[in-house]
Amino acid sequence: AFGNSLPKIQFNSNVFKQLLIQWIVCCHISFHQVEQPSFRLLLNYLTAVSASYTAIPKSLPRSSNTVRTWTM
Which regions of the chain are under pLDDT 50? Predict the structure, then answer.
């Protein structure tokens, strides 16, 4: 949804909070996961990179099989 937005949207902490909570609740993610260094590193990397509107969405795996392949 956001990957195709033009012009680039500004960061909004309330939207981020809503999206994070939605992910946690819908996917039954432990609240403690936000404390994990690997999760925080992922978010820090995303904020630090200068990517095109399509680079990150194209890099997101579309299936659990892709993630399985990456980790095996």
Answer: none
